[in-house]
Design goal:
three-stranded mixed sheet, three-stranded antiparallel sheet, Nucleotide Exchange Factor Grpe, Chain A, domain 2
Length: 204
């Protein structure tokens, strides 16, 4: 009888301890799962960090390439600006080069005429001097016309204040009112723009 009682008590103790053991097993399982999750999260974080570092490196390379491109474009712009400045300076410096080249033969004609005039061994008539002067003037007028220069010689024309400058006014029975009766100085136009107005005398 006593042995049976002890046996029953032992079984009861075992029954009381069983839930505790189950709890301990559950706790161990939960801890194991938590550690596994932490390991997984840690691995994921490492992978994310590697991806982030790779993206940063790629962006750094892209920025470096952009910086090089910006510097190259800036250098090309500066070179283009310097080249344009040189071209503008050359344009200003040599703008009249063609005109001067065209004028050189006219100057040669003047020089040749003066040599003849001052040469005692050469007899020069007034008629020859006049003819030479006329030829030189015609050559000069031709050059000026080729470069868009027009001579204003308004004798007998109506006075035009845009291209004529009245030096004086006179009474004239032979001319209508506001007619140019004399020209003190011829005027000049350059491609339609007045370089110098013709200085004239106008009939009242």
């Amino acid at each position: 009888m006593t042995d049976n009682k002890h046996h029953i008590d032992a079984d009861n103790d075992t029954l009381h301890e069983a839930p505790n053991q189950v709890d301990e097993v559950n706790q161990v399982n939960e801890q194991t799962e938590t550690e596994a999750e932490q390991n997984v999260n840690s691995d994921n974080e490492s992978a994310d960090m590697e991806d982030l570092m790779q993206q940063i490196n790629e962006l750094t390379l892209q920025l470096a390439a952009k910086d090089e491109e910006i510097l190259r474009v800036a250098a090309e712009g500066m070179n283009a600006q310097k080249r344009l400045q040189r071209e503008l300076e050359n344009t200003r410096k040599y703008a009249n080069e063609k005109l001067i080249k065209a004028m050189v033969p006219v100057m040669d004609s003047f020089d040749k005429a003066l040599e003849i005039v001052y040469d005692d061994e050469v007899e020069v008539t007034v008629e020859a001097m006049v003819e030479g002067t006329i030829n030189t003037q015609q050559s000069l007028s031709k050059v000026l016309q080729e470069y868009g220069i027009e001579i204003i010689n308004p004798l007998g024309e109506r006075f035009n204040p845009e291209i004529h400058e009245a030096m004086s006014m006179v009474k004239s029975e032979d001319h209508e009112k506001n007619t140019v009766v004399d020209v003190f100085q011829k005027g000049y136009l350059l491609n339609g723009r007045v370089i110098r107005a013709a200085m004239v005398v106008v009939a009242q």
